[in-house]
């Protein structure tokens, strides 16, 4: 990862004050848990901070973040806030062919909140919507999301888990409409 990501995060208005703080619930420190590239845009999904039921994505140009030389990033980041649910943050991201993003959300720290998959259009983050909630699995943390297939208004996705033998992968079918 480019060191310029720190420049990007430090300029990301509402979440910038949480940069460099611990992840614990008292500090709600900035923590990147997922990333996706759509065109020239690198999207960073933030597990924390989680503020007032909102989670965040920070976007920046891959051309600027990974350009040669040692100059800092100077362009303003794109900060997207979206309704994720109380104490939820981003656990992973997966891009769709049309530029929208699937977002795996779950506990921002260690809260007992359900994991879910949201659909977000970066052009309209206020319209983010939940496509489905993951079934509860004892001692399993949903941490990975990938798209297996998309078509006819439906997605097949694979979710991987931490603290489960061999990732405990599960396939989900989600309706896009």
Write structural notes for this entry:
With 177 residues, the chain is mainly beta. It has one domain. 6% of the residues lie in helices and 47% in strands. It is built from two helices and eleven strands, in the order αβββαββββββββ. The strands form three sheets. Strands 1-2-3-4 form a four-stranded antiparallel β-sheet. A four-stranded antiparallel β-sheet has the order 5-6-7-8, with no helix packed on it. A three-stranded antiparallel β-sheet has the order 9-10-11, with no helix packed on it. Strand 1 and strand 2 form a beta hairpin. The longest helix is centred in the first third of the chain and has 7 residues. The chain is globular, with a radius of gyration of 16 Å.
Largest sheet: 4 strands, antiparallel
In angstroms, what separates the terminal alpha carbons? 35 Å
From the alpha-carbon coordinates, what is the Rg to the nearest angstrom?
16 Å
Tell me the number of helical segments per DSSP (H or I, 4 or more residues long).
Answer: 2
The structural class is mainly beta
Order of strands side by side in the largest beta sheet?
Answer: 1-2-3-4
What is the total tally of β strands? 11
The total number of structural domains is 1
The sequence of SSEs as H and E is: HEEEHEEEEEEEE
* Shape field: globular
The mean pLDDT is 94
The low-confidence runs, each spanning 5 or more residues with pLDDT under 50, are none
The percent range for strand residues is: over 45%
- Determine the fraction of residues in helical runs and give it as a percent range: under 10%
